[in-house]
Amino acid sequence: MKCKKCGGKAVINMPQHNMGLCKDDFLQWLPEQMQKHIKKQKMFTPEEKILVAVSGGKDSLALWDMLNILGYQADGLYIALGIDEGISYSSESQRLTEKFANARGLNLHVVNMTADYGIDLPTLAKETRRGRDKPCSSCGLVKRHEMNRIARDFGYDVLATGHNLDDEAATLFSNTLQWNGDYLIRQHPVLAERDGLARKVKPLFRFYEKEMAAYTLLRGIEYIYDECPFAEGSTSTQYKELLNQLEHEHPGTKIHFFTKFLSAKKKGLFAEPTTKIVPELHICPKCGQPTSAHEICTFCRMMDRVNQ
User: Which structural domains are found in the chain, ordered by start?
Assistant: First the structure.
């Protein structure tokens, strides 16, 4: 296959775009496309400070790399959860994240659960009985709390995550199968800031997972290949496999599915009810984070149960 731009040998085929590109053109095309989506969705401006949640995986490191190339003020945040059962997952992902940041002279914040809170994530989940078999529920709670805390404490305007099109399509598929109305209303590449909660954006929402893998490979970015050991057998993984089958037979299925959903939302199909009562937020007296709970926030209640 020939590169659509220069006629040279293509290194990646993107049938959903009816296009193949060589290495140089692909590495130029991807950041340019991301910049277009950032502007179109009004995610952030060059003057704003961005905090990138990095996990050591291909998507978040590629996102941080492209933001740096595009000239944005982007720092990283790594949350060490202490997931080292069977494999040194957290240790290795942290090593690769720090290696990436040091090689490029980028600023990286590191939150260590064991050092900061005296407990790792698997133990926390067991002692609080959240998730029972898997600590995914506790993981999401911890990450949301710490991402927003660091964004607030260090004055960041926006929090960026590396969710790609495959992630977004699988989430949409799950929420549609179950008709989770509240989740369908909230799912969007941009969630506005509110009452002390940082604006959250997903600049990679239009890019396939294989495109992000190709980018990191061609850029020479070393990342952790292993998935979180607790992700094995998850429903989201099963949904991704089903969507991959459809995509193989009908290229463009995933991007069509998600972008048409966004168009439907814009036209009012999933508009929030006019009578819906938005939960009132107040400041948690223990950690200072916004919460809709009556007293202290869910994170602090969870930590109190462990300490008791």
Answer: 41-276 (3.40.50.620)
| Strands, E assignment, the chain | 12-14, 19-21, 49-53, 73-80, 108-112, 158-160, 190-191, 199-201, 282-283, 290-291
Residue with tokens 């462990």: 306
Residue type, 85: E
Q: Is 268 exposed, middle or buried (0-12, 13-18, 19+ CB in 10 A)?
A: exposed
pTM: 0.90
Instruction: For strands 73-80 and 49-53, give the pairing.
Output: parallel
Report pLDDT digits (tens) over 104-161. 999 999 999 999 999 888 888 888 766 555 678 788 889 999 999 999 999 999 999 9
* Whole-Å CA distances, 269 to 91, 108, 150, 272: 44, 40, 35, 9
8 A C-beta contact, residue 109 and residue 73: no
